[in-house]
Structure formats: C-alpha cells, structure tokens
C-alpha cells in the first residue's frame, strides 16, 4: 500500500487528472442517461476535440520552456484560409496544398521564434502581436467571406475512417484487432521497461503493481476499441493523433532535444552553462508550434469543410487550459505530452457533457474557468508542499 501511495505522490498531476477524467465521464454518463459513452458520441468527441489536442501537443512544449503562445488560434485560421485558396480557388492538389500549408506554419513559427529567442522579446508580447496580425491577415485573405467546399479527399482528414479490411458488419473487426495488438504492445513495453530498470539497478515497484497497471491499460484500450467498433471504427484523425503522441512522447522522454527542453524550462541559465543552446531550442520549439498550429487549422477546415474568418477563435485558450489541467507548470520545466492530451480530454468531455444536458454557454465558460483555476492552484499547492 505504501508503494502505491509513493507512486501516486510522484505522479500526482498525471494520475490525478486520469482519475478526474474517469469520474467526470461517469458523472456525465449518469446525467445524460448513457448518451455520453454511446459509440456515435465517443467518435464525435474525438472528431470535435482533435484540433485542440493537436495544438495541446505543441503548446505543452512551449509551456515547458517557460513561454506561452497566444497566436495559435489565429495561425490556425490563417493557414486554413491559405489552404482553401490553394485547393478551392487555385485547384491545387490537396497533398501539395497540405505540405505547403505546413511549411507556411513553420515559417510563421520561425518568425515568432526569432523575436522570442534572439531578440528576447517576451513570448506573451510576440504571440499577442501574432494573434492580432494573423487574425487580420485571415480577414484580408478571405476578404471577410468563407471559402468552400474543400475536395472530398481533403475532408477525409477529419471525417474519414480507416476501412475495415475484414469486412465486419455490425462490428468493425479491424478496430478490435488493432485494440488487441495495442494491448500486446502495452504489456510488452511495461515489462520491457521493468527489465531495463532492473538491469541498471533503478528502484522497482512490486511485480503485481506492474501487472495491475498493464491490466488496467489493456481493459481501457479494448473497451475503447469495442465502443468505436460499433460505429464506423477508427477515425483517420485518431491515427494522426496517436502518431503525434507516440513521436512527441518519445522525443520528450528519450531524446536529447527533449532533455534540453526540460532543462531550459527548469533553469535557463543553468541549462546554458551546461552546454544547452537555449536560443536554438526556443526557436525550434516555436517552429514546431507553428507546424502543429497549421495542422490544427487544416484539421478544423476539413471538419468544417470551409475556411471562415472566425475559425480558430479561442483555440489558444483551450490548448493552454488543456496543458495546465494536464499537469504542466506555469513556471516551466514540468509537463508531459500525455498529460496535455488527458487535460484536453477532460475539457472535451466537460464541454460535450454540459452541452448534452442543455447547460448554457455562459455556465459552460464559467465552469471551465473555475476548473482551470483549480488545476493551476493544485499545481502551486503541490510545489509548495515539496519545496
């Protein structure tokens, strides 16, 4: 029991939000008479929150370095507008248009990263200026009007599903197979990590605790697979999200770049003296944010099947809230990609649940603000207890 308590204390931010997500889901499942976790609604939850989750992955890196990016919603709208001009007006190939859009996002990130990293203007000011600049450019590019419709192939980014190669009728068999494969990989990875830890003499938890953790993950994966298999199976955007989560988690946990990002957020002067090229790291973190903001804009445009001047409104606030709720520290140096995703899902389930029970937008905004305040307060309380 002491070992469980110790593990929970060391991972209280992440585990706390997982528990909160479970309780929030159960709470709204009861209030909505079982509608929340129906296959159609679970799929809609993924589709509705995909662009915020993409932004949260990039935003958590920015926050870990001790900065903030207020421009991502406007950048997403701007890139969505450019993609519409390329695909709808200029009839450019969707694949080429997507590549060019992502490159434009990288250029936007480089522009902002230059001012933050090398000119040393606070990121809050640079990205606030960017928020105004790119919102204005979006209005200019679109001339105040929406552009639609996008090609069908592009729309499938947000509305398409992976075909069931096994030809299931009532259930998507491919989804179930993927769930089983992922379960095997999770169990293998859990015990591989344990074996590596033993080899290098790291502190170990009990075997039964590792088994319990792996079993819990397997149950969640297969339940989720079964639920979405009852609708259309695996959405294309879920595949994109999973690839991003795996790649960014690997970079942050196992690569030098990830260690440098954490070091920069923990103590910039100490990181610089240790040989970390702090300016370069900051610059590339903003370039990365620009690319993911562009991807978010493309996903949103594909889902809406239109580029509109009002696209991306408040995206930055939802992404920042997802990161803080998921355990990122406002002072930098702390945060995880998985935590940001969990935070985004907490926000998404709350939004969806409150809408299903007919709660007004005014109440929804107030409750979300209160949750964010409590999450940051919880973070500060934990830091004061450990210092």
Automatic annotation (TrEMBL):
<feature type="transmembrane region" description="Helical">
    <location>
        <begin position="70"/>
        <end position="88"/>
    </location>
</feature>
<keyword id="KW-0812">Transmembrane</keyword>
<feature type="transmembrane region" description="Helical">
    <location>
        <begin position="281"/>
        <end position="304"/>
    </location>
</feature>
<comment type="function">
    <text>Part of the binding-protein-dependent transport system for D-xylose. Probably responsible for the translocation of the substrate across the membrane.</text>
</comment>
<keyword id="KW-0997">Cell inner membrane</keyword>
<keyword id="KW-1133">Transmembrane helix</keyword>
<protein>
    <recommendedName>
        <fullName>Xylose transport system permease protein XylH</fullName>
    </recommendedName>
</protein>
<feature type="transmembrane region" description="Helical">
    <location>
        <begin position="165"/>
        <end position="187"/>
    </location>
</feature>
<dbReference type="Pfam" id="PF02653">
    <property type="entry name" value="BPD_transp_2"/>
</dbReference>
<keyword id="KW-0813">Transport</keyword>
<feature type="transmembrane region" description="Helical">
    <location>
        <begin position="319"/>
        <end position="346"/>
    </location>
</feature>
<feature type="transmembrane region" description="Helical">
    <location>
        <begin position="234"/>
        <end position="251"/>
    </location>
</feature>
<keyword id="KW-0472">Membrane</keyword>
<feature type="transmembrane region" description="Helical">
    <location>
        <begin position="94"/>
        <end position="116"/>
    </location>
</feature>
<keyword id="KW-1003">Cell membrane</keyword>
<feature type="transmembrane region" description="Helical">
    <location>
        <begin position="12"/>
        <end position="31"/>
    </location>
</feature>
<feature type="transmembrane region" description="Helical">
    <location>
        <begin position="43"/>
        <end position="63"/>
    </location>
</feature>
<dbReference type="InterPro" id="IPR001851">
    <property type="entry name" value="ABC_transp_permease"/>
</dbReference>
<feature type="transmembrane region" description="Helical">
    <location>
        <begin position="207"/>
        <end position="228"/>
    </location>
</feature>
<keyword id="KW-0762">Sugar transport</keyword>
<feature type="transmembrane region" description="Helical">
    <location>
        <begin position="123"/>
        <end position="145"/>
    </location>
</feature>
């Amino acid at each position: 029991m002491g070992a469980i308590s110790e593990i929970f204390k060391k991972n209280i931010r992440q585990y706390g939000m997982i528990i909160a997500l479970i309780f929030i889901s159960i709470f709204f499942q009861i209030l909505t008479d079982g509608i929340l976790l129906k296959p159609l609604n679970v799929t809609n939850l993924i589709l509705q929150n995909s662009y915020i989750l993409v932004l949260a992955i990039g935003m958590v890196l920015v926050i870990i370095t001790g900065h903030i990016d207020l421009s991502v919603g406007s950048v997403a709208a701007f890139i969505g507008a450019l993609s519409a001009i390329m695909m709808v007006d200029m009839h450019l190939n969707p694949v080429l248009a997507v590549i060019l859009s992502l490159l434009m996002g990288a250029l936007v990130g480089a522009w902002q990263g230059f001012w933050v990293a090398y000119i040393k203007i606070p990121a809050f000011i640079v990205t606030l200026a960017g928020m105004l600049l790119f919102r204005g450019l979006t209005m200019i590019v679109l001339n105040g009007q929406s552009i639609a419709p996008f090609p069908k192939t592009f729309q499938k980014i947000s509305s398409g599903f992976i075909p069931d190669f096994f030809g299931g009728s009532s259930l998507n068999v491919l989804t179930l197979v993927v769930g089983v494969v992922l379960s095997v990989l999770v169990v293998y990875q859990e015990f591989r990590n344990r074996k590596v830890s033993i080899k290098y003499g790291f502190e170990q938890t009990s075997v039964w605790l590792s088994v319990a953790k792996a079993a819990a993950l397997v149950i969640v994966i297969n339940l989720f697979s079964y639920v979405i298999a009852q609708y259309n199976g695996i959405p294309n955007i879920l595949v994109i999200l999973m690839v991003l989560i795996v790649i960014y988690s690997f970079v942050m946990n196992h690569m030098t770049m990830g260690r440098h990002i954490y070091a920069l957020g923990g103590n910039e002067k100490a990181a610089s003296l240790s040989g970390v090229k702090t300016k370069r790291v900051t610059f590339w973190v903003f370039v990365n944010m620009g690319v993911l903001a562009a991807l978010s804009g493309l996903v949103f445009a594909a889902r809406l099947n239109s580029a509109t001047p009002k696209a991306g409104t408040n995206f930055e606030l939802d992404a920042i809230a997802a990161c803080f709720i998921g355990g990122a520290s406002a002072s930098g140096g702390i945060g995880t990609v998985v935590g940001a995703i969990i935070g985004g899902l907490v926000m998404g389930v709350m939004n969806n649940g409150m809408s299903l029970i007919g709660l007004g937008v005014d109440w929804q905004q107030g409750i979300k603000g209160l949750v964010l305040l409590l999450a940051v307060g919880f973070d500060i309380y934990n830091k004061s207890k450990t210092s």
